[in-house]
Amino acid sequence: MAAQKWTCTGLRWSLEGPALVWSGGRRSALTWGKRVAFGVLDGTARQCVGARGHLCPTRTPVPGRSTGARCEECARLDRAHSVAADTIADDPRPYRVYLAWFGPGLVKVGITAAERGSARLLEQGAVCFSWLGTGPLMAARRTEELLRAALGVPDRIPYAVKRTVRASLPAGAEERAAEVVALHARAVSLGNWPESLVPAPCQVMDHMDEFGLQRAEPAAGAVIELVAGGRVGGELVAAAGPDLHLAVEGRGVLVLDTRLLPGWELTPTQEGGQITFPVKDFGARQDGLF
To answer: With left for phi above 0 and alpha for psi between -120 and 50, is residue 33 left, alpha or beta?
Structure first.
C-alpha cells in the first residue's frame, strides 16, 4: 500500500492563530499541545515549488537548507511582481508603516497592506509592534526609507537572529515595549513625513500570548534541514513567525522552521516524540545557522 503523501506550502498566521497550509488549500490549525509528527520518504528529493501559482517547468532540485524552496529562475519570477522587492508602484491599496521589536536591540521598520491587519507582524515573529501611519504605497515606502535612515534601524532582521534572542526576552510587557515607544517618539518628532501619510499614535501591541513564548521553556536548538528518510515528532508548545517550537522527547524544545518544508513530499508518522533531522544546538556557535 502506497504511503500517504502531503505537500506543505507553508505556515500562515491569522487572528485565530497559526496553521499549516497544504497543496490544494487544506489547512491544519496549530494549537498548543498538538502533536506535530511527519517524515520524509527514503529516496525522495526536494524540488522547486515554482512561482506565482505555476509549477517549476524543470522540477529543479533545491537544497535542503534553502528557506525559499525555489530555483534561481522561479525565485526571480516570484519577485518580479512584489511589494517587498519594490517592483510595484501602482498598488491602490492603503499601506501601514510599523515599528516591530524582536528582542533587545532588534527593532525594524516596515510596511504592510492595511487590509492584512497584524498578520504580517505575526508572520515575521514580531514580539511587539506599533503602527506609525497609513497612506498610499509610495508614501508608506518613502516614510519607511526616511525612518530607516533617521532612526538607524534596518528594514530586515535575519530569522536566525530573531530565534536566538527569544530565550532571553524581558518578562514584562512594558519593558518589551520600551524601545518601540522611544523610537516612535523620535519618528514623530522628525516632522517631514509625506503629507499623504496619516500618522498613528503609539499603541504597542504584544504577541507573547499569541506566540505562547511565556509558557514554553527556551529552545535548545533548531532543525537546519529536512533529509530523505528523516522524521520529527513533538508537542507544539509555542510558535513565532515561521518557527514551530516542539517539545521533543529527550531533546527539550527544538525549533522547526516551516520554510524548510515546501518542496518535500511529507508522510504522517506514528512514532512518539523524536527527531532524526539534523539539528543545530543553540549552545554552539551561531554563525551561518541558516
So the answer is: left
